[in-house]
Specification:
Aminopeptidase, acyltransferase activity, transferring groups other than amino-acyl groups, GNAT_dom, alpha+beta, N-acetyltransferase
């Protein structure tokens, strides 16, 4: 039985329907538990969701995980804010999430995929991600969130 079949049989679902997203749970994890979005305000999260393809993982209507894809749907996609909540880890949900992202019909045929991670390299390698081959071509402006924005 495939991973997808096993997870579906166990009652897990993945959806890009934004109306299903539990903004409170997603915001809490990103703003207070993640290393990459610490201090993210709820308003910025809501705006980021509005302007991205979002993937939610659910079990019995409870949020289990989340990911956003920022894309032009033609040439480029940036995967970010990927997480599985602690009680649901170790079940293959992150692999299933990445599989669904890579197979999403609006993301077929892209020239470049990008993401950043401090600790999940082995997960992303399974889906073809490698270190940037020419890092000297890439530039960035990085402005961390100010934690004083949070309530």
């Amino acid at each position: 039985m495939s991973l997808t079949d096993q997870l579906l049989k166990a009652g897990y679902t993945i959806s890009t329907d934004k109306s299903l997203l539990d903004i409170e749970a997603i915001h809490h994890y990103l703003a207070y538990e993640s290393y990459w979005a610490a201090g993210l305000s709820k308003e910025k999260l809501q705006r980021s969701i509005e302007n991205s393809i979002c993937f939610g993982i659910y079990h019995e209507n409870n949020t289990c995980g989340f990911a956003r894809v920022i894309t032009d749907k033609a040439t480029f996609a940036y995967i970010c804010d990927v997480f599985i909540l602690e009680p649901y880890r170790g079940k293959g949900l992150s692999k299933w999430l990445m599989q669904n992202i890579k197979e999403h019909p609006e993301l077929n045929g892209l020239r470049r995929w990008s993401l950043a991670t401090a600790d999940a390299h082995n997960l992303y390698k399974q889906f073809g991600f490698v270190p940037i081959s020419k890092p000297d071509l890439w530039m960035e402006i990085f402005t961390p969130y100010v934690k004083s924005e949070l309530p």
